[in-house]
Amino acid sequence: MLKPQRRERSRMRLVLPAFIFVLVIAQLVSHSVRADPRGIDFTIAAKTGDLGKVNAMLADGLDVDIAGEKRLTALMWASRTGQFDVVTRLLKAGADVSVALGAYQQPALAYASEFGHLEIVRMLLEAGANPNQAAATRWGNPVSILVKAASNGNLETVSMLVNAGADVNKTFDGGNSPIMAAVSSPDVFDYLLSQGADTRYVNAANVDLLNIAVMSKSADVVRRIVKVRGQNLNRLDSQETSALMRASYLGLEEIAEILISAGADVNQKGPMNRTPDR
User: How far apart are CA 76 and CA 194, in angstroms?
Assistant: First the structure.
């Protein structure tokens, strides 16, 4: 009954080069302005937790927000690598929590949230960081900071951001919503659902939450989604493919059975008049 879908592989061959192109261009732009050597040294010290060097360079009058390695600030690097003491010192020196530089144009809070450095997230929020400021995917597409945390399954970070005012339905340019980023983490998914996340949102690529869960092979989350009142199990995406069709074409028998048991139409026709069992 269940056969792999060749079109999925063809689509990925077309999409991936575009993603790579965007990333290369972003990297070129980020390096188009030569960084100050002092900024390089400063950010490396921050990244590696060399508090003594950070203190010395600040004492010499160095701008705490100077861009360095990969055009990021010291606060961004320390937030990314989890250097709690360095972050504390930089904030005391007046580091700007809203600065967004580098290839991804995202602030320190995005890095701390993505990598699950909970206490640094807390410090940045207390220092005035905006939990709804834009971040970016690895391909440079704008997303919310909450998406960064949710995509890595950081439940504590997600809840901290939400409690600080992060919008659970925040999107940028029709990108994925936070709950779409949580399809591989049932506990994060459940939490966002409890906070009012919209399960019927469709992104700019005309893909809904159910199809994303199927593509992520997340049977537990698919089981949760089909129980949500008002969910359209037979919605066709831009490829005229329903969640059941996609599960069938990808050989995901467990997910297909979940969808069928929930009432998905086994006779619905998609591309080339194919039904889920063909």
Answer: 31
